[in-house]
Write a structure and sequence with these properties.
Elements (H helix, E strand, L loop, with lengths): L4 H9 L11 E7 L3 H12 L3 E8 L6 H14 L7 E3 L13 H4 L21 H11 L4 E5 L4 H9 L7 E7 L14 H5 L1 H8 L5 E4 L1 H4 L6 H9 L3 H21 L7 H10 L4 E10 L10 E4 L10 E7 L1 H13 L3
Parallel strand pairs: 1-2, 1-4, 2-3, 4-5, 5-6, 6-9
Antiparallel strand pairs: 7-8, 7-9
Helix pairs in contact: 2-12, 2-13, 5-6, 6-8, 10-11
Length: 332
């Protein structure tokens, strides 16, 4: 059933870090674009429930130069050159980075005719921009990391006095089941497990969109047709991006379309009724070996440690895709 206006308002108010009724939630997107990051940026920019303070970038799906360029190009496409962009960490805290061009192509965002960047990244580092925006915000800020969590961990360590100014962290990463980089670990967490452990251990409310729910967020051929059918440049660009992103997932999993993981971390903030969540303790395995980067969910509380996350476990795919396509339709 479609929620009523009252039910929608109640669901939004029940989220951790919710702003006062009638106000937009200030967010900073920390990402590594990436096809699914690009849709996460678009969904955030299209949603009146959110006030996008900045986009910060990290090395992950591609190198930092590419992910920063891609963020600038996506925002240029959307006509949102007012959103500041700052580059962050090129590599994990302690480990060597892994880049997998099979997923996103050599540029990190292959497959579509995106415009050249119409503006430049800020001169300050990502953590410095985060700090200045969090410090200046009238309301607690929500961080939305959809890549390796290196920047967020560095921010939390460098500016401990600002931790209480973070209302929530809505992240894409982890898995309660199988991984996608190893048998145990999802890519974002595996790439920098030490950073992820800092984030999960920070005492800040977390909304976790792991593979359990994001692998349900498939863009199927009919959805690509709907994007094309919008008749807009933005619709065509994202249809082409999804076609490219589908290639690897079809070869690896046999799926008809790609999962847009990162958009789920934004969707839960603007339409929480599309994601079923369970509260539990989540810890990150940082030791080397077969379980490096595994996110261990303790729903039954066996560890005795306090709950630190609401973990997405089920997605209403049809409503989610309606949300995403309606968001794309708001841009020319």
């Amino acid at each position: 059933m479609t929620p009523t206006d009252a039910e929608r308002a109640a669901a939004l108010a029940a989220l951790p870090g919710a702003p006062p009724p009638g106000t937009s939630r200030p967010v900073i997107l920390d990402c590594d674009p990436g096809h699914d990051d690009a849709l996460a940026i678009l969904l955030a920019c299209a949603s009146p429930e959110l006030d996008v303070l900045a986009v910060t970038t990290v090395g992950g799906n591609s190198g930092l130069a590419n992910t920063t360029r891609n963020a600038l190009r996506v925002l240029t496409l959307l006509g949102r050159t007012d959103v500041p962009v700052a580059a962050g960490s090129e590599r994990p805290l302690l480990r060597e980075p892994l880049v997998q061009p099979d997923f996103h192509g050599e540029s990190g965002l292959d497959g579509a005719d995106l415009p050249d960047a119409g503006f430049a990244a800020r001169s300050e580092a990502a953590v410095e921009l985060m700090a200045s925006l969090v410090r200046a915000s009238r309301m607690p800020v929500t961080l939305v990391p959809t890549g390796p969590m290196t920047n967020v961990a560095l921010f939390l360590r460098a500016f401990p006095s600002l931790r209480d100014r973070i209302g929530a962290i809505s992240l894409m990463g982890g898995s309660l089941g199988a991984g996608n980089t190893t048998a145990s670990a999802e890519f974002n967490i595996w790439q920098d497990p030490e950073a992820a452990a800092i984030v999960f251990g920070a005492g800040i409310p977390i909304l976790m969109a792991g593979l359990d729910v994001t692998h349900q967020a498939l863009v199927l051929p009919g959805d690509v047709d709907r994007l094309d059918g919008l008749g807009t440049r933005t619709g065509r660009v994202f249809a082409d991006l999804m076609r490219f992103f589908a290639i690897h997932h079809r070869a690896r999993y046999g799926w008809e379309g790609p999962p847009i993981h990162d958009a789920v971390a934004v969707a839960v903030l603007v339409a929480p009724w599309v994601v079923t969540r369970r509260a539990m303790r989540v810890d990150v395995e940082i030791d080397d070996g077969l379980t490096r980067g595994r996110t261990v969910g303790d729903e039954e509380g066996r560890s005795g440690r306090p709950v630190n996350a609401e973990v997405g476990v089920e997605l209403d795919r049809a409503r989610f895709m309606d949300l995403v396509i309606d968001a794309v339709a708001t841009f020319a």
